[in-house]
Amino acid sequence: MKTKVATLCIVALVCLSVNALAQNPPLLLGSVATPQLITTGCPGNAGFSSRMTCYSTTVSCPGTYDIPLVFGFLAGTPNPSIRGTIVLLPGSSGGSASADGEDIFISGASYYNNNNYPAAGYNVVEMAWGHAIPLGFLGMAWEDTTNDCGNNCPPPVPASSIQAAACRPATFLNYIAGNSNYHTSGTGMCAQGFSGGSGAVGYALAWYAASDKSLGYLDKAVLISGPVFSNIELGCEVPGPIQTFSPVCSGSPAFCPTGNGSWDFAPYFYEGTVAGAMRGFTGDQTCRLTNTSPQSDQNWLNMSIVEGNASFNYKYTVLSGFACGNVASGSGTMNNSSTQAWTFFNNPIITPTNVPYFFYNVLNCSGSEGVYATPNTQVPAINNEPGFNAIFDDMTNSIKTHTQVCTSIPHQ
Known about the structure:
The N terminus is likely disordered. The chain has a single domain, classed as Alpha/Beta hydrolase fold, catalytic domain (Rossmann fold). The termini are far apart. The protein contains ten helices and twelve strands. It is α/β, with parallel strands linked by helices.
């Protein structure tokens, strides 16, 4: 197992000079075809909020096949004016807009006065990858450069690389940021990613210039239960690292806020169907199967978010993270979402002047990633609020949280 970026960070100043500004230039973005209004309404099998207006489009990126995408848009209620746009990126393959219950941020939670992003003055965008109108769902994950074409791949066949595939969500975020139909110039452009969706946002920041001075298109990013692709080698390699305790927030770094609480033990490695999916996304069928080769380990590391050339200069993006510190009794066990998230946050990240970033512990999760699934979840560092309340406040209400809400960050 090779030395990871985080282990190089013995002194923050040294880390900064080695890694934070190392990536030059960023990877290239692609293009988004002119969206077409879906006059029959949002596809029923794509999980969109009933309040959405949906559009179909195609995203094209270097080193990938073109991929169809359906996205939904809901205009916010001026409060007193529109405050910004929040893009919700779903987990897993991204094939369902509400796979992780993110609709709660559109409809609101009864235990928090049904507060929701549109009522707070934010436009909201949802997405479902691999849907084409009128053909329906075609079974394409944004993480798969080949669109799972199997033995029917037209030449030239792109190499399997989740890092290359991450151009797709990054390109879409950049498109929304620059299109006045969905985002008003001068207001906040923000993203909230869950699990695999947080991985997409992580790649956008680290590799696709989401916080760059000239191209930057994210004012705030909230990463939930991830990024799960922070170090793919740690997720796939056999044997993996020997762990005897949870490393998350060890050493009490400043970005783990006071009162965060302890973290239960969680593995680094991918499990079950996730490991199977990663074999396809990375093009290496040995992920979590047999003792893996040094070449496989290196290839996985090379396509990770936290790799030696990644950028951690997020001078124009406010950053927050939420991950499970423990799981409610009878709700399963911890998975690698918290340890992979720690691998990302434990780097020399630069954020806007006088605006710190934070990584929050969520207790009593419903399942290994259920940070906002029930009112019983708690965020100790934010007044023991339920996970939904804490995330909502972090995005919209700076009075209650430690950082800045979704608002435009001046590029100076």
